[in-house]
Amino acid sequence: MKKYWSSLLFLVYLLPVCAQVPGSPIDVTAYKFNLVLNDGDNSIKGKAVVTVNVLKNTNAIALDLVKKNDAGMGMEVISVTENGRKLKFTHNNDVLNIQASPKAKTLHSYTITYSGTPADGLIISTNKFGDRTFFGDNWLNRARYWLPCVDNVADKAAVDFNVTAPAHYEVVSNGIKIDETGTGKTKLTRWSEETPIATKIMVIGVAKFAIDKPGKVRGIPVYSYVFPQDKEVGFKSYAMATEVLPFFMDKIGPYAYRKLANVQSKTIFNGMENASVIFYSQKSVTDADVEELIAHEVAHQWFGDAVTEMGPHHVWLSEGFASYLAHYYLENKYGVDSLNKRMLFDRNT
């Protein structure tokens, strides 16, 4: 068993080095997304800086971005520049083609200015208390609805989110918070994730949150973000992560990120393993199985996040690892009968 887990840990550190789409002429190394949100409507304004390492000569840089349709949903690209110089582009079939001819073994940064109303990917809605919320919900390839990117699970990059939103919201994202500055009725919050991650787990959460810090695990701060009306029960439920995280650090290896935030959200999934900022459903804070859910999503920080599938048809692997590891954690805490019961349930469903 020790040798087996050591081999898996080797993969955790090896795979980010090879984190691009096989055969692609480019490897995205970093994204910087500058986003402006508002309460007047569901439109967003964006300025994305996409830095690419050119692997082989190419005549165009292709990024995924859903184009504005006849119903007014989607994104409209206003301009594309490199070092202040305007570049020609086409935007058809939800692909932004930047007309550039970079040579192999060169690094380039392209700035895309755009705006529109997301049809998916960024879920702008109201929570169960009637409060407005904004939650990224990219899995498996839905980042393209609001972010210009290489929207493929095999492609991983560092990411910064700089979010300007009405001042009454809190903003949470991947990585660590760099700073937060108010400008009257709006507030700019900057987050940065240095570890390369796939677009499926690059997100923001913007809402009225109550925030707790139940502890640190070997230097990793653990946070809880819940809707204020669920503050008491939510803080208690999400604090379980301070027990789950060290268990997996002992059994698998070091945690890849600089914080762990557990966030009550309004998305389509019961739990979503966004790197360092896990989103859970609204009802999760009172769910009888919340501990198993937290264990499953934290396990994904290793399998699905740090080690990512090479294509969507391999997603079952990370789900299998996360499901088994959640059972393994509960077996350690509650005994072998707990494992047997859950394995039998999985087999029969």
The total count of helices amounts to 6
**CATH fold title:** Immunoglobulin-like
Specify the structural class: alpha+beta
- Overall tally of structural domains: 1
Order of helices and strands: HEEEEEEEEEEEEEEEEEHHEEEHHH
CATH class category: Mainly Beta
CATH architecture: Sandwich
Helix fraction by DSSP (H/I, runs of at least 4): 10-25%
Radius of gyration: 20 Å
- End-to-end Cα distance, whole Å, is 28 Å
Principal-axis shape equals: globular
Low-confidence stretches: 1-7, 9-17
Q: Which percent band covers the strand fraction?
A: 35-45%
Summary of the model, kept short:
21% of the residues lie in helices and 38% in strands. It has 349 residues and is α+β, with helices and mostly antiparallel strands.
Keywords:
single chain, eight-stranded mixed sheet, 21% helix, five-stranded mixed sheet, 349 residues, alpha+beta, Immunoglobulin-like, 6 helices
Written overview of the protein:
Residues 1-7 and 9-17 have low confidence and may be disordered. The chain has helices at 2-14, 231-238, 241-251, 290-299, 315-334, 336-348, and strands at residues 26-36, 44-54, 61-64, 74-82, 85-86, 89-92, 95-98, 106-117, 122-126, 132-136, 156-166, 170-173, 176-183, 186-198, 204-207, 210-217, 220-226, 260-264, 271-272, 277-280. It has a single domain, classed as Immunoglobulin-like. A hairpin with a 2-residue loop joins strand 6 (89-92) and strand 7 (95-98). Helix 3 packs parallel to helix 4, helix 4 crosses helix 5 (315-334) and helix 5 packs antiparallel against helix 6 (336-348). By secondary structure, the chain is α+β, with helices and mostly antiparallel strands. The chain contains six helices and 20 strands. Strands 5-4-8-2-1-11-14-13 form an eight-stranded mixed β-sheet, with no helix packed on it. Strands 16-17-18-20-19 form a five-stranded mixed β-sheet.
